[in-house]
Amino acid sequence: IQKKALEKLETIQELRELEDFRVAYLGKKGELTSILKGMGSLSPEERPVIGQLANEVRNALEAGIAAAKERLIKAAREEKIRQETLDVTMPGRARKLGKKHPITLVLDEIKEIFLGMGYEIAEGPEVELDYFNFEALNMPRNHPARDTQDTFYITEDVLLRTHTSPVQARYMKDHKPPIRIICPGRVYRSDAVDATHSPIFHQVEGLVVDKGVTMGDLVGTLQVFAKGVFGENTRIRLRPHHFNFTEPSAEVDVSCWGCGGTGCRICKGEGWIEILGAGMVHPNVLRAGGIDPDVYSGFAFGLGIDRIAMGKFGIDDMRLLFENDIRFLRQF
Ligand code: PHE
To answer: Which of 128, 139, 160, 165 to probe ligand 1 with, by most ligand atoms within 8 A of CB?
Structure first.
């Protein structure tokens, strides 16, 4: 038995096979076990001889099985290591890098300018309450000025914000002056899509509230902004306008970067390009934000950054800004 078994042991290649082998010889119904069981029928002289022999065989098989087990485990480990070898000389896979979107590039520049003047960045939700988008901005329900905003309503009280001005109202509720913030974000209006209109666009709101803030501060701030974004020789021009949330209000143009304000194809001969609305914060808006208009004053502005990006980068169709075609984006 021993010779046959040990020879068989040599040929075993898998741990499972080894276990079957062990059961076949040493298990309860194994070959050797049955010999030991049959010892009762032997004569008293034979019993110790056979018993000793059987024990020797069992010891030899157990040792053989242990050795075979070690051999198999070692082989398995070596095989695993062999399979996991890395070829460190293999060339890597090239990853394609993305590019910053033109809107992001313009926004980065604008942030840099205002952060440099001590502003902080505030944000608000795009799905907004009617209260913050209109009511707190001195536009009560049924006010005709609401019609100019082409609002996407979700329910009677909830809408997609039509401008970033609601962030002003939210911020004033939670902060006391001095306030100096810009609020970049997406805004929504029910506009038909064409080369210069999109139902989704981007604004940057600005709000400053403190004691003694004047229209002169607003103009100076916008001049710094315009020169920073469009170049040192840029001038700005204010035209009287109406917004419910500012008084007085103005629309602000920058001198055209193509012709320096003398009239060219970019500005269609006008010399000026409209880029923002602004004004002194209306007392009702300060009051809605819990700020006393007899103590504090402030200015606010709202920039449309899609148009600024189009102007700066010579993009002639607004739709390109939303298609995210990598061939387009790679150019900036
Ligand atoms: N919210 C105005 C708009 O979207 C812009 C604006 C902001 C005007 C702040 C005045 C002050 O048209």
So the answer is: 165
Strands (DSSP E) contained in 189-329 are 200-210, 236-243, 246-255, 272-281, 297-304
User: What's the rounded Cα separation, in Å, for the pair 130 and 154?
Assistant: 10
Answer whether 0.80 is exceeded by the pTM.
no
Residue 131 · residue 263 · CB < 8 Å: no
Ramachandran quadrant class, 87 (left: phi over 0; alpha: psi -120 to 50; beta: rest): beta
Q: Tens of pLDDT along 189-203?
A: 998 999 888 999 999
Task: Tell me the residue type at 222.
Answer: L
Tell me the C-alpha to C-alpha distance, in Å, between residue 45 and each of 38, 40, 243, 246, 295. Answer: 15, 12, 120, 120, 121
**Dist. CA 302 → ligand 1 center (Å):** 4
Query: What is the CB < 6 Å shell around ligand 1?
Result: 163, 165, 205, 243, 246, 277-279, 300-302
Closest-CA residue, ligand 1 atom 12, reads 277
Instruction: Report the C-alpha gap between 311 and 325 in whole angstroms.
Output: 19
What pLDDT does residue 122 have? 97
Ligand 1 atom at minimum distance from 304 CA: 4
Question: What is the per-residue pLDDT across 142-172, written as a single tens digit (0 to 9) for each?
Answer: 898 887 788 999 999 999 999 999 999 999 9
Q: Which amino acid is at 118?
A: G
Q: What is the CA radius of gyration of the chain?
A: 41
First to last CA, the chain: 83
Ramachandran class of 269: left when φ > 0, alpha when ψ lies in -120 to 50, beta otherwise: left
